[in-house]
Design a protein that fits this description.
The protein is mostly helical. The chain is 82% helix and 0% strand. The longest helix is centred in the last third of the chain and has 38 residues.
């Protein structure tokens, strides 16, 4: 694939990711699901081009989403956790022991999500009513549930990537082949 095709594909991925992120304004209950879906396009660029082009999609989507998406909590989750996760996931999958890999992912998610919410609440002043009005025991429960969802997302991303390689990649590459 030449650079012109990669640039066009990256622009389409940024536009589609931003459109997906805009859905979070209509469906605010999908605060984690929508950024996770948008991040799959970063994975797509990583598979079809390389991590450098995927990073460009992540940065472009982050900037445009921060400017145009009204629901900033979903944008914060995309920027802080899920948007760049496809880029660092291969490093987390390197340990041969799957329990070590899961532990690394769990520590990563916990640290980053707590830091992201702290920054959203105290630096940017984004209101997170549920966290502010909840009992003290409720926040750790939310973190554990979020961690479980994140590990399921990680597994789904792995399976989707395998399926893409096995079934869809040849078809997609035929679309971008020079004629």
């Amino acid at each position: 694939m030449n650079n012109t095709v990669k640039t066009a594909l990256g622009g389409m991925c940024i536009a589609l990711s931003t459109a997906i992120m805009l859905v979070s304004s209509v469906l605010p209950y999908f605060t984690y699901a929508i950024p996770g879906i948008a991040a799959l396009l970063v994975l797509f660029m990583q598979v079809e081009c390389n991590p450098k082009w995927a990073l460009g999609v992540y940065v472009g989507t982050s900037i445009i989403s921060a400017l145009v998406v009204p629901y900033k909590e979903a944008v914060g989750i995309y920027i802080a956790v899920l948007g760049y996760y496809p880029l660092i996931k291969p490093f987390f999958d390197k340990p041969k022991n799957k329990y070590v890999s899961l532990l690394i992912k769990a520590v990563f998610f916990t640290v980053v999500i707590v830091a992201a919410y702290w920054v959203m609440m105290f630096v940017f002043g984004i209101s997170t009513e549920l966290l502010e009005e909840s009992e003290k025991f409720f926040v750790p429960i939310l973190v554990v549930l979020g961690l479980a969802a994140f590990l399921l997302y990680d597994r789904a991303m792995t399976m989707l990537e395998i399926t893409y390689y096995r079934k869809w990649q040849r078809t997609v590459r035929k679309l971008f082949r020079r004629r």
